[in-house]
Design brief:
The protein starts with a helix and ends in a 5-residue tail after the last helix. The chain has helices spanning 2-14, 19-37, 46-50, 116-125, 144-153, 180-187, 192-196, 207-217, and strands spanning 54-65, 69-81, 84-85, 89-96, 107-113, 135-137, 156-162, 165-168, 174-178. The protein has eight helices and nine strands.
Length: 222
């Protein structure tokens, strides 16, 4: 309850997004994802990405304090559609203190969703990660068995990068909501559901991000 209250208090001050903000978030998200995946021993396992239906990337999520610890960040979310990753929609994420405290540093966050329903439940019902939608700190590196075991037990696998270190982290208690101003700035009247379903053309600024996700989430046997 306190996580939701914190998010409801802090989010309005940062919620508005324009096209410049959208472009920067897409570019930064691609950079973060590529940097993480270029170190195979500590990256998100390919087995996790191959089984993923959606992902969310939140560049430099910020810590704040209003009597207790909390976080707030703005990022993107994408789902598979028509044999590829669809265009990104925009989200903001926040809540109470994480299970693993990372200090006051800015932190990059990646969330991997096994099903589209897991992401849509968070966006529609405003439930907390780890509440009605199960979540776990994701495995890293080349350990395929760990990736499979974790993926079988949780709908969302969560990761964070702080001070150069990338690891699975508990984001239980955080809330994910659509950034409707960001979607409107880039796509006009299209809804976030249309974007996730692949019914909106991928803008040129997002094509390199889509290409990176396709490259790292494709089966190595293909």
């Amino acid at each position: 309850m306190m996580a939701v209250l914190a998010f409801s208090l802090i989010a309005p001050a940062f919620a508005f997004s324009d096209r410049t903000d959208d472009v920067a978030r897409i570019q930064h998200s691609r950079q973060i994802f590529e940097e993480v995946m270029q170190t195979p021993d500590t990256a998100v396992p390919r087995e996790v990405l191959e089984g993923a239906q959606c992902v969310a990337i939140v560049p430099s999520e910020k810590s704040f304090a209003i009597g207790f610890g909390g976080t707030y960040g703005k990022g993107i979310a994408m789902c598979r559609a028509n044999g590829s990753w669809a265009a990104p929609m925009f989200v903001h994420v926040g809540g109470g203190s994480w299970g693993l405290q990372l200090g006051g540093e800015s932190t990059d966050v990646i969330m991997v969703f096994r099903t589209r329903k897991g992401l849509e439940s968070l966006l529609t019902d405003k439930v907390k990660i780890g509440g009605d939608v199960s979540a776990a700190a994701g495995p890293v590196g080349r350990n395929a068995s760990a990736a499979t075991d974790a993926g079988m037990q949780a709908e969302i696998l969560t990761y964070a990068r702080s001070r150069g270190a990338f690891a699975g982290v508990s984001l239980n208690g955080d809330v994910v909501q659509p950034d409707t101003s960001g979607d409107k700035a880039l796509y006009g009247a299209s809804s976030w559901k249309q974007i996730l379903a692949g019914k909106v053309s991928t803008p040129s600024v997002a094509r390199s991000l889509v290409a990176a996700l396709n490259r790292y989430s494709r089966s190595q046997d293909n």
